[in-house]
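dumping this here before i forget
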Amino acid sequence: MILSSLLLLTQLLAADQPQEKSEPTLVFVCAGQSNMDGRAPVAGLTGPLAAFAKPQEDVLIRFSSGGLARKLREEKELKPLAPGCSDGDKKFGPEIGFGRTLAEKLKGRKIVLVKVAEGGTNLHTQWNPKTQNALYARLLANVRETEEQIAKTGAKCELAGMIWMQGEADAGKAVGAYEKNLTDFIATVRHDLKSDKLPFVIGEVCADNPGYTAIRKVQKAVAAQVPGVGFASSDGCKTIDKNVHFDAAGQIELGKRFAEEMIKLKNPKN
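structure:
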């Protein structure tokens, strides 16, 4: 099984020319709570969205969903990007729109996504880098394991950026500490992943929810104040419930906005 997975990965990442002349595989990290994990139904990918329901061979992904308060569901081997990389195989998050848009804008580049998420998780404790055996530690492990997987194929890789969709769980009493916690989180991620200028995009929690006003204000402030940090607006993105979880069209649009903002950060002169 391991041998066949490595063979498939080698084929998918195979360069058209000698490795020393080829560009490295770009690795993007996707992390957060339920709107990163994704509650959008795959059944919503119909009509103009139907193409997003199909596997995308030129973007690979591995994911880890749950593991604290929820049942752990994960895929450790890299596979073509497709819906189902969530706490259920009939759901998806922004990774679908994000990966497809990156592939369109970064023509010819090999792209790998590493997704770690769990619904209902907060930044002050469950994502806090100081909390032992929680989500941050799993995030680092998944990124490092992915880099090792790519290296085994003989390919080079570049940690190219991170998108963050989280904040609803901190919208209550923890909101006062959220700006410092998020700023510190970004700095720690960059330090631990040995990428001090890692492009980082913050996704806006539902713009139509008045209960998230303070969190949205902080998200915008951090994006404006911290170098190399962007902001993906959720304005106009509809939900499947009372302005919390984005629907299929909303998640696809949010993913596109993440990608567009990431491209801006990586190419500020364009």
